[in-house]
Write a structure and sequence with these properties.
alpha/beta; Rossmann fold; 7-stranded parallel β-sheet; 41% helix; 13% strand; NAD(P)-bd_dom_sf
Length: 318
């Protein structure tokens, strides 16, 4: 049995990871800013300070953990209202992550699993799936902050002896998903026409329970030491295939208009939404061969199983 502390334990991915750990008999402490939301079997620790300021001094008496999985973050949003988005992302995603790592190391944790993002590497692939050793080229403040956090944590690990493990997922989906994936399901469920009928771009995704399984392995498996891993479902659907599959599972066939990628890019330029359009028409594939080779990891669920579970949740709540 391992003792694991999870930041953001009451969030979308955090709850899935807690379920996986509790199910296997591990002792789980959930660190959250607000009470409630942690699943049964998790010891909840509420720490309301902004960006984990003062966490070391506030460390719960008697709390000993073997590893920490750091999920809490300022997440990517399409219309960021912050006056200085990069500074806001850095405050939480870089400085906050480093404070958690420092407090964990000073209180006896041996491993720190940092949940980064594929956006720390790139927004699109260049003809092949992105690998862990590809030169990073983040394109937005969120991606830059995640890369900077990786670099700061690795430096701290080298200086302090803390075993830092980096995990980079692409878009995460599953029951409880929000943002663009939820909006796509809503549009399909309501029968809205979508200009996605001819999009051949392939996009890696990761089902939340697949990500939770990989994070569990990274937290407790000795072979993960000092590793950097890309995690995905292992099957990259085209945007058109994804929309059609969601329609089937939502029991509302997707109404897809066959517009070319070129026309969509033109529309994006005219409307000032080129970045959003590029996320639809550009390939973003993630190579997961390293985590398979090092940890012997295989995604427990297929893309179709993940989409089916997500659609069942949507139908039950809407």
């Amino acid at each position: 049995m391992s003792r694991v502390l999870i930041t953001g334990a009451n969030g979308f991915v955090g709850q899935a990871l807690c379920r996986a750990l509790v199910r296997q008999g591990h002792a789980v402490t959930g660190l959250a800013r607000h009470a409630g939301g942690c699943i049964e079997g998790v010891s909840e620790w509420v720490q309301q300070s902004q960006d984990f300021i003062g966490l070391d001094a506030a460390w719960r008496s008697g709390l000993t953990v073997d590893s920490v999985v750091h999920l809490a973050a300022r997440v990517h949003v399409m219309d960021d209202r912050a006056a200085d988005p990069l500074a806001a992302f850095r405050a939480t995603n870089v400085d906050g992550a480093l404070r958690v790592a420092q407090a964990a190391q000073r209180n006896g944790a041996a491993r720190f699993v940092f949940v980064s993002s594929i956006k720390a590497v790139a927004e699109a692939d260049s003809g092949r799936a992105l690998r862990e050793d590809d030169p990073p080229q983040p394109q937005d403040p969120y991606g830059h902050s995640k890369l900077e956090a990786e670099q700061a944590l690795i430096r701290f690990g080298e200086a302090s002896g803390l075993d830092v493990v980096i995990v980079r997922p692409p878009l995460v989906y599953g029951p409880g998903v929000r943002a663009n994936f939820l909006r796509l399901m809503e549009a399909i469920a309501k029968g809205r026409p979508l200009p996605l009928g001819s999009i051949s771009a392939r996009r890696s995704l990761v089902y939340v329970d697949n990500l939770a399984d990989a994070l569990l392995r990274c937290a407790i498996d000795p072979r993960a030491a000092h590793g950097r891993f890309h995690v995905a479902d292992g099957d990259d659907p085209t945007v058109t295939e994804l929309a059609r599959a969601l329609g089937e599972h939502l029991q509302r066939p997707a109404r897809l208009v066959p517009l070319s990628a070129g026309l969509l890019r033109m529309a994006g330029r005219l409307t000032g939404r080129s970045a959003q359009v590029e996320r639809l028409v550009g390939d973003l594939r993630v190579d997961i061969s390293r985590i398979r080779a090092v940890l012997g990891w295989q995604p427990p669920y297929s893309v179709d199983e993940g989409l089916a579970a997500t659609a069942r949740w949507y139908r039950s709540t809407h």
